[in-house]
Amino acid sequence: MPRVRVRQHVNPLSDKYQIPLVPPDWTQIYPHLQQPLHLDIGCARGRFILEMAQLQPDRNFLGLEIREPLVAEANRKRDELKLDNLHYLFGNVNNSLAILLVSLPDCVLDCVSIQFPDPWFKKRHAKRRVVRPDLVEELGRSLSEGAKIFLQSDVEEIATEMREQFDRHPQFIRQHPEQWLLKNPFPVTTEREKATFAKGESVYRCLFISVTR
Fold it and tell me: Which of 11, 101, 117, 135 has the fewest CB atoms in 10 Å of its CB?
């Protein structure tokens, strides 16, 4: 099947993306629903968790992506590989995260990753960014003790902003004393990460853990 071509950036504040997602019946999605769940926010084509799901069949993986054609393509690929611990959802994290988190069984979500989000450089576009105080607060309300948050970007300004927002929240503790995590803690790297290193450029990462509920 040919690679789906879609716009690289979409405006999450446009009318098209203001309808919150309707969570599925999770018992129909994951045969082993009580396995730990990794949520990848802004998963794009979903290749990162596609590989992770194959490497870690004892975990479930969920990708959330605002570009619907990419979600359809990713779920087709999942079906081709017959992976029952992987699912992709179309939705806007800005208005759907709370609904999604409430719908999940208690304590299964133990890892959230946000990797290379759209930077939206212009000051007037900053409200379109993924990591905002309301997202951090929602994760703080929903994640159990020990859950991990992994962030990375190839734009230092954006990575710094994300890191500082989680640093300010009392529930999240950064797991490395240096500003940036030197090594990716996962056995899989994203396509963007590979491309960034191929150009000789830097990736800025950080890892947080939830300390209370």
Answer: 11
Residue range of the domain that includes 60: 33-210
With respect to residue 81, please indicate whether it lies within any of the assigned structural domains: yes
Bridge partners, 80 (sequence order) = none
Place of tokens 């992987």: 86
Among 40, 110, 118, 154, the one annotated catalytic: 118
Is there a catalytic annotation at residue 154? no
Tokens of 38: 């990794």
User: What is the H or E stretch that residue 96 is in?
Assistant: helix 93-103
The string over 60-91, giving b where at least 16 C-beta atoms fall within 10 Å of a residue's C-beta and e elsewhere, is: bbbbbbbbeebbebbbebbeeeebebbbbbbb
In a domain, 21, yes or no: no
CATH code of 185's domain: 3.40.50.150
- Give the pTM: 0.91
Residue found under tokens 């990419």: 70
CB 163 within 8 A of CB 174: yes
Identify the burial level of 54 via C-beta atoms within 10 angstroms of its C-beta, where 0-12 means exposed, 13-18 middle and 19 or more buried. Answer: middle
Q: What is the pLDDT of residues 7-34, one digit of tens each?
A: 556 765 566 766 889 999 999 999 999 9
In a domain, 18, yes or no: no
